[in-house]
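protien #1 (seq + structre)
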Amino acid sequence: MQHLYKYSAAISIMAISLTGCGDTSKIASQADVGPDPVLVAPESSLIPTLNIAPAEGWPIDEKPTVAEGLTVNRFAVDLDHPRWLYILPNGDVLVAESNAPKSESSDWSFKSWIKGMVLEDAGAAVPSADRITLLRDEDNDGVAETRHVFLENLHSPFGMELIGNDFYVANADEIVRFPYEEGQTQITAKPEHVTDLP
């Protein structure tokens, strides 16, 4: 028990001492934009400044306030870490459900510990769904009536693009291509490797 206390105390002292390593802007708001922006000299520190917005969805019974004459609908719910949307020519909405790729190393390090805390604060410390979901609004009422797993077994997908009949996906480590036919709700073809990504 005493060892646990010493370990916790050491981490607390280290965390408190490192909080002074970050920095915040000392220039007036909006002074760094426009035709004559204020540019400050870069600074380096042991720990970079991080200001992460907590991931919080809208409560189910609330929605944003919009300008007069406009309305907002909840198009879909229960998506697993949606990161990017792409609308196909027929109106189908594709959602890349993706999170950070699984770490290659299982070894503990101070850097990986800090990274884990940052990911947790951002709501990203969960396994990646690694899929693209297709949402279809069949009656054009602003709410998706049907949902399909369009592509699965990807690797932290993000970007998507349809060029002709070729559907491209940017995984975390490569760009792949699939054949696409308008209106299809699932692609089962194997991915064709286009290029690696660093």
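ok now protien #2
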Amino acid sequence: MSKSLLSLAITAAVLSGCSLIPDYQQPQAPVAAQYPQGPAYSPAEAANQAAAEQGWRQFFHDPALQQLIQTALVNNRDLRVAALNIDAYAAQYQIQRADLFPAISANGSGSRQRTPARMSQTGEAAISSQYSATLGISAYELDLFGRVRSLSEQALQTYFSSEEARRSTQISLVASVANAYLTWQADKELLKLTQDTLAAYEESYRLTSRSNEVGVASALDLSQARTSVENARVQLARYTRQVAQDENSLTLLLGTSIPANLPSAQPLSADLLSELPAGLPSELLQRRPDILAAEHNLKAANASIGAARAAFFPSISLTANAGTLSPDMGGLFKGGSGTWSFAPQINIPIFNAGSLRASLDYSKIQKDINVAQYEKSIQTAFQEVSDGLAARQTYNQQLQAQRDFVNANQDYYRLAERRYRIGVDSNLTFLDAQRSLFSAQQALITDRLAQLTSEVNLYKALGGGWNEQGSQKTEVSKEAPPLKLF
């Protein structure tokens, strides 16, 4: 038996290097080598530090926002689920990889049986005993054609994909908290603007009402002044509701209540974000976790082809055990009580009605699907970055124009108010100036919010938000989880 086992072990060792997994070829990126150029885009600049290497504490300057992001990273439930998914896939990889090793188990048993006299060959009742202790290997498959290793590689790549999925979840969480916070601050500024405007409208209405009482202002002037007041009250109710809902959305993202010791928020007009270099499209392949996750899924599908190919070939499994057998406990480990069994089994597929061929075809189709998904993830990333770059340039121009528009409306309002006070112009011109200024100030806050959220989304699109502080190494470690033998 020992020679047979030795020769079988040598054969297995020789064939253990056999793998039917196709050579992996990274698909070509289906995007241009450069981001779009044109009037909507600023000139390309060299990137001293990639966005993915710029920590979120560097990118976001507002201390209140930094504290909220830190709170979300600790308490957010989606991020917690993503981390637990990594542990789950690590366990699945451990289960699959364990099939590469023989499962050894020890077993001890004992039995006593009484045979009645009429059933005994001697005509007398008899009591028989049997005790055994064995050490054995149960149905261990010799991985001659790499089927088990292919399945193990598939599980490993799925584990790597789950790590990238966690990175993607964290980056999305950082961006979501930032956008929710900025929306909250914008709505609070709009609420404050509406409160101030309502107070001005109400004062104007009181003045118009007095003028109407003495016959200076007409009923039409009074009605127009009241219209402005009621419209401002509608806006006040809307922004009050939106501020409350913004707080609820932010609380959900944080996974806990908004901290009571939150630092004072900086105004939207402050320098809230750092400048962000775009780099080159090729950098997205190494920076975007969703692209890396899609590539790992592609590698997992590639490995499954190897397992499907190996199923066409014979498989050999071994069952063996050795131990002692004795009719009494005392003689269990005495000389001459040894026992062993060896039961190799070979399975040769002959006819399966095309099942194996269909399984291989299915694996190849799944790989093609994953190739398309990988390419789509690259195209999506390219489009998101391109949109962000277009937004950056055009929002800078739009905001400057909107500031100039607000300044012009403020001049218009001051002149209209002065002329109305001295009786040169009617109340209609003054009310129009009030409404125009209010509308322009609202649009300025809204445009500033849109600019900030577009910069945050560009930071996310470039793979930023994974590190807390700036770092030159942002890649997830591509090492298999440690093998636990017991």
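The beta strands are 104-115, 126-142, 315-326, 338-347.
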